[in-house]
Amino acid sequence: MKISLIYAYWANQPGGVTWCDLPWALRDKGLPKKLNAAGHEVLETILMAEEPFAEELPAGLRLAGDIADAVREAAEQGELPVVVAGSCAIAAIGAIAGLGAGTRIAWFDAHPDLNTPETTRTGLFEGMALAAACGRAWRHIVAEEARLLEPARFEDTVLFGTRDIDDAEAGLITSAGIARAATVADLKSKLGGAGSVYVHLDMDVHDALEVRTDASAIPGGPGVEEVRAALTAIANIKALAITGLDPAAPDAGRAADIAIEYVLAIAGDGA
Fold first, then answer.
1. How far is CA 218 from CA 111, 207, 208, 212, in A?
2. pLDDT in tens, 142-169
3. CA–CA separation, 212 vs 206, rounded Å?
4. Tens-digit pLDDT profile for residues 76-110
5. What phi, psi does 99 have (nearest 5°)?
6. How many domains does the chain have?
């Protein structure tokens, strides 16, 4: 299999912001080398946002647009695009825009990221990632900068391991018909015979008592073996994004190894 590793990086990050370094954490841990050793052909692309971090929304969405172009090109060439980015919003919007209309979404994340500018309590764009990808937040600038001309559909989304949900997000999950999978079998059933699936893997999906990936990690989620089983049960994965892992977190090294194991499991034997 040909695998396109797409590293999305914020070059001008302020001191103390360490989650931006996730691409290098996985690369330094040997992600491309291990894929090569498993028999896969690996292509690497580095995408950078040069603007000041204070300009998070417009600069981040321009980076998402670059991700969309890279994902689209890789998919057209029959490659599996794997986006590695510290920002879950940039990764999700870019990958979904790159795959285009009709893509189903398997959302592995402790948070549904369904807030909007009207409902958010923190103001963080990360908490609006799925809402933005589905056209509910910042729709015009997302379309212009990230080239997401046709948003994803809420009803094409399945949440897995999602448990830290605000009241407004819970209301949207119900009203928009967003599915939630409680087990691996449930996830497989609700994705059905999807011809194209985007897998969004925020590493905070894990039970924080088993592996703590960043400051937002919380107890109660699935364990490593359950996540692995869920990922490998999904057919027709057309793009994968890995995010939500802070290289400065206490369990960062182990979490990086786990993320790499997941990519290898999804890719299978390259021989």
1. 10, 6, 5, 8
2. 999 999 999 999 999 999 999 999 999 9
3. 8
4. 999 999 999 999 999 999 999 999 999 999 999 99
5. -80, -30
6. 1
pLDDT for the residue numbered 16: 61
**Is there a contact between 94 and 9 (Cβ–Cβ < 8 Å)?**
no
Tokens for 40, please give them.
């896969």
The CATH number that applies at residue 44 is 3.40.800.10
Q: Output the six-digit token pair for 31.
A: 């992600």
Q: Extract the tokens encoding 93.
A: 């919007």
Would you say how long the chain is, in residues? 271
- CB neighbourhood size of 93 (10 A): 34
46 and 35 in contact (C-beta within 8 Å)? no
Residue-number span of the structural domain to which 169 is assigned: 2-267
Higher pLDDT, 59 or 154: 154
- The backbone torsions φ and ψ at residue 267, rounded to the nearest 5 degrees and listed phi first, read -70, -30
